[in-house]
Amino acid sequence: MASGSNPDSMDTDPPGGGGLSISVERNPPESRLLQLGVKSWPKWGCPTGKFPVKFDARQTCYLLKGKVRAHIKGSSECVEFGAGDLVVFPKGLSCTWDVVAAVDKYYKFDSS
Prior knowledge:
This protein has one helix spanning 30-36, and strands at residues 23-26, 43-46, 49-54, 59-72, 78-82, 85-89, 94-109. Strands 1, 2, 3, 4, 5, 6 and 7 form a 7-stranded antiparallel beta sheet that branches. It has 1 helix and 7 strands; from the N terminus they run E-H-E-E-E-E-E-E. The radius of gyration is 14 Å and the shape is globular. It is mainly beta. InterPro entries: RmlC-like_jellyroll (IPR014710), RmlC_Cupin_sf (IPR011051), UGlyAH_Cupin_dom (IPR008579). Residues 1-25 are annotated as: Disordered.
């Protein structure tokens, strides 16, 4: 079964190539958050504003509050996510966060 048609798939392209995308899992069940150990991750927050971000490692985060529009560099793609979303940013992705409501999140970087 081909998996290229699901925009929420967790597939990532090699760093430096085009086509890196943000994966958003809306309102994952509590069991998934417990399985990932989300509440043991560090917390981070930011006020409203625009911030350029480059991910040197794959990051997974869970938003406790806030709303973000992420504009992917070199693309017309804009991905919106907010409170209750589990979001994965692939290694090598550059984007601009347009934070429209102040963010609080748990996050973790993959060590590989």
